[in-house]
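Researcher: I'd like a structural prediction for the single chain below. Treat it as a standalone chain; there are no partners to consider.
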Amino acid sequence: MVEIQYKLQERDLIAFSEHEVKPDSPLYKQVRRNSTTIPGILCAVALFYWFYYESVLTAFYVGVVGVVWGLLAPLYFKKDFRRKVRRQFSDEDLERILGDYKLKIEKKALVEISPQGETRILWKDVLRLEVTKKYAFIYLDAHEALIVPLENLKHDEIVEFTELVDQRIEESM
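Model: Treating it as a single chain, here is the predicted structure.
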């Protein structure tokens, strides 16, 4: 029986929400448009001023605005997205969700021990496991997952845990 312990924090919830943003979502398109398309248009206008009107100063200002827009717009949208995610949870929700967790892998179920108690999740109810550099997401639904921060786990624990979870998911199908 493999067991891991971790502490779930607010930044982990935000990381999951950011992970859920797909390339075809409106938010992703808005960020891409504001980080590439608009600065590209502004730089093209700057070149137009430079070559057609020979106005170096105007071209310089428009070009700088384009570059600054391209650099700062994604940061603004990321901060705004994180603020919106944070507002989705009340203080009571955060108190209930955050804290120390323990996951045990058993033959027939994944056992989650949280501040609210013990929950048994049958392997047939687990959709998939996605592993990123900093997190493992054990999906229970299309938009619901157990979030496992990997920062405080040893590499051997991570490998053993993810391989066993994958194996149990495959066996349950």
